Structure formats: structure tokens, C-alpha cells
Prior knowledge:
By secondary structure, this protein is mostly beta strands. The chain folds into two domains: 163 residues, lipopolysaccharide transport protein A fold, CATH 2.60.450; 164 residues, Lipopolysaccharide (LPS) transport protein A like domain (lipopolysaccharide transport protein A fold), CATH 2.60.450.10. The chain is 3% helix and 61% strand. It contains one helix and 24 strands. It has a 22-stranded antiparallel beta sheet that branches. A two-stranded antiparallel sheet has the order 1-2. A hairpin with an 8-residue loop joins strand 8 and strand 9. It starts with 9 loop residues before the first strand and ends with a helix.
Amino acid sequence: MLINKQGILSSLILFGGVFFSSYLAIKSTVLQDSSRDNNQVVGVGYQLKDWQMSETGLLSSFITADKMLHYADGRSNFFAVKAQYFDPKRQEDPPWNISADLGRVSADNVWVQLEKNVQLQRAKSKNSAAMEANTDHLIYDRRLSQITTDAFVTMKEPDLGNVTTGNGLKINLNDNEIKLLNDVHTTYVNQLPLTVHSDELEVNYSTQEGIYQGNAVADQGTRHLTADHIHLIREPNLKKFSEIHAFGNAKKQAYIELIPKLGESLVKGTSDEIVYHPILQTLTFKGNVELDQTGKVYHGPLATYNLQTEMVNSPASTEGRVMMQLPPDEIATNEKEKT
């Protein structure tokens, strides 16, 4: 715990190569007054450190602060706070480094709230890209190993140039997941920026998958994709997305529209699931497929559209037959060519 009942900060200190379990509060002062009220300051400390261990004996957090005020009811305020929070299951992963102008600790030592100019940073690892974020305030819950906020958040992947914003954030240190909870907007930078919007975002760095949930919209150049939810799966080298899956729901299918090449007609497509393969430059439509380009309409259970050759491939399927509908002027043109 950070503060004991006498108002002194607990910590583990490394000195001369030996660990000492002790309380560290350099230049600290404890005020003795039995008649004080709950909001009265009863302790002042400077250059404070706290080193927390998990139940399994692994390092879970390390916190420093320039100054502390401890109150009669057990609460504590810290100033110029720097904290490191570690994944309790994957100690080899880099910690979350967080700084803030002000920190507050609950009287029961369960949560730490950081406020004003809150900056988050985590270095690149084999499981995740480097990450930076900023927000107005957040709470670290020690029992749940979670970092949460209901404030506006900006997250950046500095090595890739990707930027995500949203309202509300939850980082679960136990399963390496990040969720942006409302009004999410992401811009992915590649040859053309890919921008994704949704109500909620969940990122699992172990599987390299991002899930945009609720009224999801993705735009890249002339390509416009809408769906109930969109899954983005990244290559192991973290540089490109290998697959983008868009899923419809019972009320509305996934939908995409695009212009294959400059000056050509708009292509529209709907299906239960749409899979975009950026490396192969293909779109795969699965379930109740309809493709439409200026009146030429394809219906079927499965189809693959090649964005480079503009060819549609529809293999045989036990789930239904294929139907192609051509506009009258297209039929007339074909008949003239035959004669």
C-alpha cells in the first residue's frame, strides 16, 4: 500500500545492491493533532517512492512524486507524479509509463487517480507497437489491474504514424487489451491513409487485432466501408494490415463502395461479411452477396473481387447459385458485336 495509517509512504528501496523494505519520504513531516478533521493535512513528504509487488511476487508498479500531502481520513495527494505499471502476467513486456501533475490515492489504497496533463507511453515490444497517449485524468485500480478514464483520449503509434481518438479508455493489464469506449476515430497511414470510425474500439496486442464495434465506418481514398463492426488484423512485423473484416448484423449487411480506377464507374457491394486483403488487393464477399457496377449486378453466396484486374471470381457453392443481371444497353452492345 502507498500510505499506512500514520500517513507514511511505503516502498521498496534499492541501495548498495540490497533491497530494503521500508518507508521512504525524504524531508517528511507528520503533524500530531488528535482534534484534526478529515480534510486537515497531517503529513507532508518530498521525493517519494513506492514499489508495489503482485500476489505472485512480481513487480506490478513503481511510483515517484516530488511532494505528498497526507490527510486525516487516509487520503493522499501527490505532485509531479511518475508511475510505471507492469503486466502482471508478462513481465518481459515493457511497462506503461505515466506522468501527471497531480495524483490522488484512496484511503483504502485500492485506486490511484492521476490528473492534469496525463501522459501515457509504452515502448515497442515483440507483441505490440510503441504507444503514446494523453488525457485529462485516469484511475489505476490495483485490485483489477486496470487503467480507466471517461475523458477524451488521443493515442498515437509513433513508429507508424497512426492516430486514434475517443471518449473513455480501459487498459486491462491482465490480458493486454485496450478499449476506447465511445466515438472512436482512427487514421492509419500507409500509401493512402485509412480512417476508421466507430462507437467503441478494443485492441488485443497479443493477437494483433483491433475491433471497431458499433456503426463502424472505414475510408481509404475512394473506398468507403460501413458495417456493424470491423476487425483489423496486422502483420507480425507491425507495419501493415494483412486483413480487414467487416461484418453486418441482422438488420443491415456490410457495405462497400469504391472507384477501381480513375474515371471508372462506382462499384457497390453488400454481403454478410466483407474481407479486404490489402497485400493481395482483393475483396472477398461472404453470404448473400450483391455487387453492382452501373447496372451490372451479381448475386451469389460467395465472390472475390480483384481490385487490380477488376475481375469477379465466384466458385461453386452448396449455399446457392450465381446470378448475373446485365442492363439492356449492355445486352444490345454485345449483340451488335456478334453481328
